Amino acid sequence: MNPTDPTDLGPTDVDPQDLDPVDLDPGLRAAIAAVAGLDRLLVASDFDGVLAPLVDDPSTSRAIPGTLEALDALSQLPGTTCAVVSGRDLETLLALTGLDGHERIAAVGSHGAQSTTDDTSTQALTPEQADQLAVLDAELSEVLARHPGVRIEHKPAGVVLHTRGLDPTVAEEATAEALVVGAEQRPAKVLRGKDVVEMSVVDANKGTALLELAAARGSQATVYLGDDVTDEQAFERLGPHDLTIKVGPGPTAARFRVTDATEVLEVLEQLLSARGGH
Ligand SMILES: O=P(O)(O)OC[C@H]1O[C@H](O[C@H]2O[C@H](CO)[C@@H](O)[C@H](O)[C@H]2O)[C@H](O)[C@@H](O)[C@@H]1O
């Protein structure tokens, strides 16, 4: 990846030729066509599990070819704001997507607490928050020591215990111990996501972040694709005129559902085509 070239988005193991052809639900196709005609549109997507297939080691996540390129092409169209909205801390999100320095695609990290669009790109913690984070880090490191194979992801305002790919008994025990840590330390937020327990010393909401970005850009509607629990906050806050799309199985407040990143790519490409891009 060339860090000075925002269109060079890094290596990936997926060859676009290997992707199965997809046929989107007719209702979703019609909804894409409807929002594509609006003068001002916000197009936003989660990263892990949406643009990038889920993998055991979170440091190896990569968007499938074409997804970030489609967002880039959309961001060049008049009246179109694009954003990647993730639970990753902003620095990691920028590194994984290659969006550092991209002038048109906004990056929103830490579940909405950090953004490249304002002065929240660095997170200043109060001394109390910093102390609490140090305790959470230490406690989860002890869980890791008891359960080798568990992964710990450190964030500026949080810490995440990862159990994807582990023996189910080990994963269950480590998850239960992490939840006890969360209950005892009472961080601002404990999130139980897909094979993760995340503890954050700041509270954030992807829905609020999306509404603020849409208002700042005067967007008439928002397209949002997400797969995990914090994406439900976004689906719930967006309205019936917005196009909300859940990726993968599970209960959701989204209007539509697609199965995986391949269908996400199809959604973005249909939107690009319907909005007049190529
Ligand atoms: O709300 P999100 O932006 O979807 O953030 C949720 C978590 O996403 C990442 O973890 C997920 O992806 C990993 C890499 O594919 C996978 O190993 C893990 O099982 C998934 O839950 C991220 O690493 C976490 O920090 C986020 O909390």
Automatic annotation (TrEMBL):
Alphabetized SUPFAM superfamilies for the sequence: HAD-like (SSF56784)
Keyword Membrane found: no
InterPro entries with a match to the protein in the record: HAD-like_sf (IPR036412), HAD_sf (IPR023214), OTSB-like (IPR044651), Trehalose_PPase (IPR003337)
Domain of life: Bacteria
Pathway, per record: Glycan biosynthesis; trehalose biosynthesis
Record's keyword terms, sorted: Hydrolase, Magnesium, Metal-binding
EC number(s) given by UniProt: 3.1.3.12
Homology family: Belongs to the trehalose phosphatase family.
Record function comment: Removes the phosphate from trehalose 6-phosphate to produce free trehalose.
Protein name in the entry: Trehalose 6-phosphate phosphatase
Annotated source species: Arsenicicoccus piscis
